[in-house]
Amino acid sequence: MSRFGRMALVPVAFPAFLFLASCAAVQSGADILAGTGQISESDRQAIVKTSGAVSATFSQITEEQEYYIGRSVAALILAQYPAYDNAALNTYINTLGQAIVYSSDRPEIYAGYHFLVLDTEEVNALSAPGGFIFISKGLIRRCKNEEMLASILAHEVGHVCSKHGLQAIKKSRLVDAFRVIGTEAARRYGSEELAQLTTAFEGALGDVVETLVVRGYDRKYEHEADDLAVKFDVAVGYAPKGLTDFLQTMIGDSTTASGKGWFKTHPSAEQRMEKVKGKIAALSSVPAEASVRTKRFEQSVAKLK
């Protein structure tokens, strides 16, 4: 069992679907369905009424719902990448990650943040909704000091703070769910309707995993996470140049051509580095690097196999 415990695909409570799409998106979807004759006018009104009644916006997803979505996404990630069985390294990564979380914009969430090392040489770092953050052995090997490692973790914490993972869920999945919820038949929760809702939920999880592992976040989300990484690093006392140092390493990495992992799911390191340098230059003061951190880093990753 992983440090995350049993991560079977846990279904979100039925009403949770009502919190996964904006009222405007649902109404638009209902209008389109009605216009093409796929649903009746009464069904269209029921869908709109249902969505409006719960004020269904991403910002109103409860932290508990976000956690269960994220836990299911984390289970899918661990099905692709095994956890690295190194208690000392995982403890170090968690200690470092929690220090960053404490100085972040969102230090307290439903079940806290969890950090785990993945047993793969693929260079990658992933963050699922609800505070599940992964970093690969391959990416840790690219770090030369704790500042660089902290900047990567801070970037992923930034994604969680901004709920970027939830934004990956295609609203079309939830329009399908609303179509079922808004009908009289669905109120009896028949097996066919429940099957449709299960399909919509599984599709929503697939959307998040595809974004994290295959497509990557939108560039604006990556730049936002970079800005937050600089902010969080400075707040906890790390030199923010750790992020630019890491990006510089990625620019010169010979594995870039493979187009896998981090290189496949992130915008160009050159573009990101210029923006980060500008962000750092605008700061009135920045912490200095500390040799004690480098020593701690070297001791912690020395047995990385």
Write up this protein.
There is one protein chain. With 305 residues, this protein is mostly helical. It folds into 2 domains: 14-64 and 169-213, no CATH class; 81-165 and 217-301, Collagenase (Catalytic Domain) (3-Layer(aba) Sandwich), CATH 3.40.390. Helix content is 59%, strand content 5%. It has 14 helices and 3 strands. The protein has helices spanning 23-35, 41-53, 63-80, 87-102, 137-142, 146-161, 164-167, 171-181, 191-215, 219-236, 241-251, 262-265, 269-281, 291-301, and strands at 114-118, 125-128, 132-136. It has a 3-stranded mixed β-sheet, sandwiched between helices. β2 and β3 (132-136) form a beta hairpin. The two termini are 21 Å apart.
List the helices and strands and how they pair.
Elements: H1 23-35, H2 41-53, H3 63-80, H4 87-102, E1 114-118, E2 125-128, E3 132-136, H5 137-142, H6 146-161, H7 164-167, H8 171-181, H9 191-215, H10 219-236, H11 241-251, H12 262-265, H13 269-281, H14 291-301
Parallel strand pairs: 1-3
Antiparallel strand pairs: 2-3
Quick take:
About 60% of the residues lie in helices and about 5% in strands.
